[in-house]
Amino acid sequence: MCYGLTRHQTKKLAFDYAMANDICPDKWKEFKTASNDWLKGFMSRHNDLAVRKPESTSLARATSFNKNNVKTFFEKLSTVLRKYNFPPHMIFNADETGCSTVTNPPKVIAERGSKQIGQVTSAERGALVTTLFFINAAGGFLPPVFDFPRVNYKDIMLNNGPPGALGLAQASGWMTEDCFVKALEHFMMHIRPSKENPALILMDNHSSHVNLKVVKFARKNSIIIVTFPPHCSHKLQPLDVTVYGPFKTRYRIAMNEWMLLNPGKTVTIYQVGQFVKEAYLSAFSPQNITQ
């Protein structure tokens, strides 16, 4: 429930329990907490427990992901699926991910006992390119949409990038409602939904996705949109683990190999398309998408 106990809190809880049951050792009473030896023994007796580093989860996410919200979402999704009877290749999941010019380097082989191992990165802080993917339930995907942190888009930004990809530009590098409408036009060009054969898109309810322009465009072009409940995409978005996880790993590998082949050169947004091409063609396998 996102309120896990630290080592100290666990020892304090054990001390309180021992005091309440009048079985507290004198050493515990001196420090008002259980000992480290007790904690080691407790962990060894319970092999299903481990000390883990938690992910930061905002209060909004922790409270919004509840039984009622999830039930309502799946009821609406079931209603839409029964009404339109979509085939798998017309059910799409849309989500953005950030592709930075600086990422954590992969693990390397080094001498045992070395105190510090370095690996060259492009810079300390990188530029972020937002990349949008459309992936369907049959295991297929569309050429991605790139949103570059520039005022104007130039074709050179997608040199050596994925064939058929759409390039956009926005000063902040974040997806906006105008950019998302252009992304839906890109979707239309490849899928061509109609009243007889509509398409379903599942996505989060970010303001760039759910607004008047997007809704009008979707209704006009036979696109049905179902959004995840607010602050619940971290649990309900299936792309994060099965697809984007392998994609980010291969993206880092592609960047690291480029750095090794181009010593002294800095990675810029003009290489992002190349790294994405190498990464998503191997990571977006039908097995990863449909599992």
UniProtKB/TrEMBL annotation:
Record-annotated DDE-1 domain positions: 170-291
Gene Ontology CC: nucleus
Gene Ontology terms, MF aspect: DNA binding
Pfam families the record matches: DDE_1
Name this polypeptide is given: DDE-1 domain-containing protein
Organism: Euphydryas editha
